[in-house]
Amino acid sequence: MTLETPSFSPGLEGVPIAESAVSLVEGEVGRLTYRGYSIEDLTGPAGTFEEIVALLYDGELPSQTRIDEMRVLFERERALTDEQIEIARLAGVGTHPMFALQAAAATLGPTDNDFERKADTVVERGLSLIAKVGHLVGVIAQAADGRPYDGPRAGESHAAMLVRMITGEEPSDLQVRIMNALLILQADHSAGNASTFTSRVVASTKAEPEAVVSASIGALSGPAHGGANEGSLRLFQQIGDPAKAEEEISRLLDDKFKIPGFGHRVYHVKDPRSKVIQRLADEVIEDGTAAADHYSIALTVEKVATDRLGDRGLFPNVDLFSGCVFEAIGIPIDFFTPLFAASRTAGWMVNMQEQWESGNRIFRPKQIYVGPEHRDFVEIGAR
Ligand SMILES: CC(C)(COP(=O)(O)OP(=O)(O)OC[C@H]1O[C@@H](n2cnc3c(N)ncnc32)[C@H](O)[C@@H]1OP(=O)(O)O)[C@@H](O)C(=O)NCCC(=O)NCCS
Questions:
Q1: pTM
Q2: What is the CATH number of the domain that holds 135?
C-alpha cells in the first residue's frame, strides 16, 4: 500500500493527531469547554479540582456523592513512600522544580514495564498519579525552601494541600478558591497541545503512566509552553516600574522578542482562560503589592502588544496574567509551572485513557529526508 505524502506542516499545524471527546478549544471565538461545559461556569465559587477530575473522567457533571468519593480517593492515593519523598527532596535542591518533578514522577513507576497487560487499570493508575503529582510538587517546594517534610493532612483538599505545602502557611479560603480555579483552568486543553500530544505519543508505545507523566512534564517545562507563566512574571520583574512598561515592551517588540504569555497557535482572539484569570486577579490582587505592579505591567503588555500584533491574530494567552495571580496567593515563581503540571496531569491521564480506548496505535509519522544519499564510505586513514 502506498500513501500519498501530505505536505509538510511545521509544528504539525492543522494536522489532526487524535479523536477526542474530552475538551474543545474553539480558537476563532475564544471558547474552551470540558465535556461541553464552559470554563467560565466550571470555575464558579464552588468549583473544585476534584469535581473537574470527576467530570473529565466520567464525562458528566458529578453529583456531590461522586465529588466526595473523589476527595476520599485523592486522600488515599496521594500517599508516597519515604523513599519517594526522599528522592523528590534530593532532586528539589539545586535544580529547577520542573526537572525535579520530572525525575520524581518517573520514580513512582513500578518494577515491571509493560502497560498493555495492565491497560484495564488506566483509570485507577491515572487518578492515583494526579493525586501523587500534586503531593510531589508540595514535597519539592518544601525541600527547595529548606523546610522539613510536612505532608498532606486528613480532610485536606488537593488545592488546600498545595497552597499550604508550597507557601508553608495555613491557607485562607480565598487562596484555596483561587488555587482551585487555577487548577481547573489548566487541567486540559485538547489533545493537540505539546505536552498532551507527548502523553499520547508515549502512551502509544505501551509505556507505564509514570513514564507518560514524566515525559509530559518535560514537554510542559519549555518557555514556549507551560514555562511561559514563569517567563512572563520574570519579564514583569525585569521591567519593574509600571511607568516604564510601555517603552520597554515597544522596544522588545521592535527587537522581535516573543513576549511570554502572548500569542497562540489556535486562539486568534483573547484566550478565554486569560479572561477568567483576570476575574480572579481583580478579586485577589491587593493595591500596593508587587503582584499589583506586575499586573499593571501585564495590562500594559496586553495593550501595547495587541495594538501592534492584534491584526495578525495575536492576543494574550493563559500565561500573561496567571503568574500575577499565583504571586498574589504567595506561590514562588519557580512553582508556577510545576502547579500547571499538577493540574495538567489530569488532562494527560484522561487522554492516555482515551488513547488506549481508541486502539492505541503507535505514533509513527514520517520524515521528509533532505540529506545526502548513498555516498561511498571513506576509510579513516583516507579522510
Ligand atoms: C504560543 C506560540 C509558541 C505559538 O507559536 P506558533 O503558532 O508557532 O507561532 P509563531 O511562533 O510562528 O509566530 C507567528 C508570528 O507571530 C509572532 N509572534 C508569535 N508570538 C509572539 C509573541 N508572544 N510576541 C511577539 N510576536 C509573536 C512571531 O514572531 C511570528 O512572526 P513572523 O511571522 O513575523 O515571524 C508563540 O506565540 C509564542 O512563542 N508565544 C510566547 C510563549 C507563550 O506564551 N507560550 C504559551 C502558549 S499557551
A1: 0.96
A2: 1.10.580.10
